[in-house]
Amino acid sequence: ETTGLEVMNGDRIIDVAVAVCEYGRHSGRPFRILARYEGLEDPGRPLAPEITALTGITDEMLQGKAFDEAALASARPSTLMGV
Question: Contact at 8 Å (CB) between 21 and 29?
C-alpha cells in the first residue's frame, strides 16, 4: 500500500507483504511458503482520508514504524536459493 501514486510529490510505500513460495514444476501451483515478511512504515506525514478509507491503515497504525530492511532482504528468492 502507498500514500498515493506520485513519488515525485512525496508519496511513499506504507505497507509491504512478501511471500516467497516454492511452486510445483508441472502444476505451477504454490505448495510451500519459504519466507514471509510483512511490515508498515511511517511516511512522516498524515495519511489522506481517502487512503485510510481505501486501505484501512490509519496514522496511529504507522506511527513510529519502519520497514525491517534486513528481514525484507532475507525474504528474497535468491537469498533462499543460494543464487
Answer: no
CA distance 15 to 41: 6
CA–CA gap between residue 67 and residue 70 (Å, rounded): 9
Alpha carbon 25 to its chain's center:
27
Spell out the per-residue pLDDT of the chain, length 83, in tens. Answer: 999 999 999 999 999 999 988 888 899 898 899 889 999 999 999 999 999 999 999 999 999 999 999 998 888 776 565 54
User: pTM value?
Assistant: 0.80
**One-letter amino acid for residue 18 of the chain:** V
